[in-house]
Structures are given as structure tokens and as C-alpha cells.
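Ticket reopened. Same input as before:
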Amino acid sequence: DAGVTQSPTHLIKTRGQQVTLRCSPKSGHDTVSWYQQALGQGPQFIFQYYEEEERQRGNFPDRFSGHQFPNYSSELNVNALLLGDSALYLCASSRQENLGQPQHFGDGTRLSIL
Amino acid sequence: SQQGEEDPQALSIQEGENATMNCSYKTSINNLQWYRQNSGRGLVHLILIRSNEREKHSGRLRVTLDTSKKSSSLLITASRAADTASYFCATAGSNDYKLSFGAGTTVTVRA
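Engineering reply: fixed in the latest deploy. New output:
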């Protein structure tokens, strides 16, 4: 039973570039959330996707966008990268039936901006 | 901004001792969850306590919740080297799909 998988594991970009991160949810899960975790901090909610729609969004600018595909996998896109976007980006999946369900996390993508 | 705060920020204990960490939050919740994160890895769900529960146990873990004080505590008994990790509390609001995390407590268990 595969858990949440994310790719790539590490990525180095320069300011102004664009990046796409990918996530496959745990088998049987239909909801995907993305979190940003800066060094030494807790994860910050970016947005959640369900039925290929953004269902809820955190306090992140429009430079952060996402997509969910019919097979429930998801992408996170960040445009016009800033130095402050350097962080661990975590994908989490769950089943949508109930609010506030435990999330299953992937090991993240470490994004470094030079 | 973080929903809650964990206390202490860091904790160092001897193997076999108990570790206690606290979490405070600001808004009403549906439930509160605790997660563990090993260095460089994703978060692992440990335990969930609902807003109408006061205490919950799972193996060596004991969680308490005081909604009047908007606080929770996590106790790890008989700690092991493998318990070395960062621990985060996360709250789920009543009409909220997201989890709001605190800044975490880093626990080091010395052999």
C-alpha cells in the first residue's frame, strides 16, 4: 500500500524562475493538501484540492497555484520565485468524508532558491 | 502565522524518562492532533483528540485537552532513542479543511 509520494525530493532554482512540484496521494485518498514548512517552523497551509477544485486556500499569494488530476494526483506551481520561497513543501492526503481528518504526509520536496 | 505555540521549544531527556510538551491555540476547534517529524522527513500522525474529549491514550502516548484554557499536552512515557524527533500540535477548526500547526517541540532522547 503506497503512501504519499512526492517528486522531486530536492530542487534548486534561481529568483524569478517557476517551479512545479508533484504529489501522488495514498491509495484510497481523494483529497490533497499542500503545506510550506520553513526551516525551524511548523507547516503552513497553502491550499487543498478535492474533486479537481481548490476547496480552501491559506494566506499565500496568487504566485502559488495548483491542480488536481482525475486520478487524484496533484501539482503545486510557484511562479516568480523569491528567496523567501525556500522551504520544504509537503503534500498531505486524506479521505474527504469528515472535516479535520488525520493527514498522511509525503517526505516533501526541499526547494532552495539562489 | 501559526495557530498555536508549543512549549518548550526544545527538550533533552535521558532514555527511559518521560517527555511532556504543551500546546496552546487561539480559536475554537473540532479536534487537535499531534504529529511527529523525523529530521528531513514528512510528518507522521500520532493521535487525535476531539473537542469533547479530555484525555486519550495510545501506547506510550497520553494526550490531554483543556478547551477552556485552549491548551493540550502530550506525554511520552519511557522514552527511547527512536523518539528523538520534532513534535507538532495541529488544530482543525469546526468548518475548516486545513490543519493549523504550531512551531513544534524538538525532543532529543539521550542513550
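The longest strand of chain B covers residues 43-50. The CA atoms of residues 15 and 80 of chain B lie 5 Å apart. Please confirm and we'll close it.
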